Amino acid sequence: MKKLFMLIVTSVLLLGVLAACSQGNSSGDSQKPSKDKEDDSGQKKYAFIFKNTGNPYGEKMMDGFEEAIKELDGEAILRAPDQPTAEAQIQIIEQLITQKVDSITIAGNDPDALQPALTKAMDAGIKVISVDSAVNAKSRITHVNQADPEAIGRVQIEAISEMIGGKGQIAILSATSQATNQNLWIEYMQKELEKDEYKDIELVKVAYGDDLRDKSVSETEALLKTYPKLKGIIAPTTVGIAAAGKVLTDKGLKGKVMLTGLGLPSEMASYIESGVCPWMYLWNPIDVGYAAGYTASALVKGDIEGKVGDKFEAGRTGAKEVVEDGDGTQIMLGEPFKFEKSNIAEWKEVY
């Protein structure tokens, strides 16, 4: 009888344990679908890839992108390789595909070399756009352009011509030889120089500092040594113009070799105030990144498809329209802005 009683007790206890385990498993299963649902309805992931680290212009652009994505309740993933190469960007693209981000915004280090990786990303359902430095039309849905490239090239030639009195030797200090935006601006500069009014100006060389400070300094020094009659330098890169400003200042060449191009007010204020660089141009890189963030979001949400005529609101940068850009499309922000002694003090505190 005692054995029978113990058997019954043991059976009851065993059933209790099994029931408790069953309830625990049931609770776990109900939480798992809830978690999956939370993932499905969670933040969208928007990635931004700049050309390389240590570039103040790129840092400002990423700040603007992150600002926009936060306004849109998304998650901004900001990446940049140590060196401005396509190969380094490809590694980052592959990583982002694995992370299953919703969009990739990229300032390309090469217009064509990134195509296989970016095509793979688009095939995986990732919305791809380029900004600042475009990749080819097959590698992206659309491009966000900081300003009219023709105007960017033209105003820099107009500036250097006025600075040197319309005659003499000039050189261009660019970023990398594969930089799409730089090459397009230089192409428009060369077309502008074909006009009769510039017949006494000779473009002696296009040098490349790879958007690296030390190399840009070396390239500027080489230009001055190779062309002792050089009258002006155009540097359509924020890294390059700051490097050239330092070299001209250190060598006491203010007023002898003129400087203009595209620069950050915060970095170029001293050179503009001293007269080493009488004036220069740029746009607000924060706004460029910000507009790119809204463009990426509009694509992810399905508000636009990147086709000519598509329209959307880009936050504080206002209404934007997708327009034709060769074989592809683009969104354009505006005209380049002139920075000079009269306004540099107020702008150097902004960016």
UniProtKB/TrEMBL annotation:
PROSITE patterns assigned: PROKAR_LIPOPROTEIN
PANTHER family in the cross-refs: ABC-TYPE SUGAR TRANSPORT SYSTEM PERIPLASMIC COMPONENT-LIKE PROTEIN, D-XYLOSE-BINDING PERIPLASMIC PROTEIN
Residue ranges annotated for the Periplasmic binding protein domain, each copy included: 47-302
MF annotations from Gene Ontology: carbohydrate binding
Subcellular location: Cell envelope
Pfam families: Peripla_BP_4
Biased composition regions of type Basic and acidic residues, renumbered to the chain: 32-43
GO cellular component: outer membrane-bounded periplasmic space
Positions of the UniProt region annotated as Disordered: 23-43
GO biological process assignments: rhamnose transmembrane transport
Protein name: ABC transporter substrate-binding protein
Keywords: Signal
InterPro entries in the record: Bact_Solute-Bind_Prot2, Peripla_BP_I, RhaS, SBP_2_dom
SUPFAM superfamilies according to UniProt: Periplasmic binding protein-like I
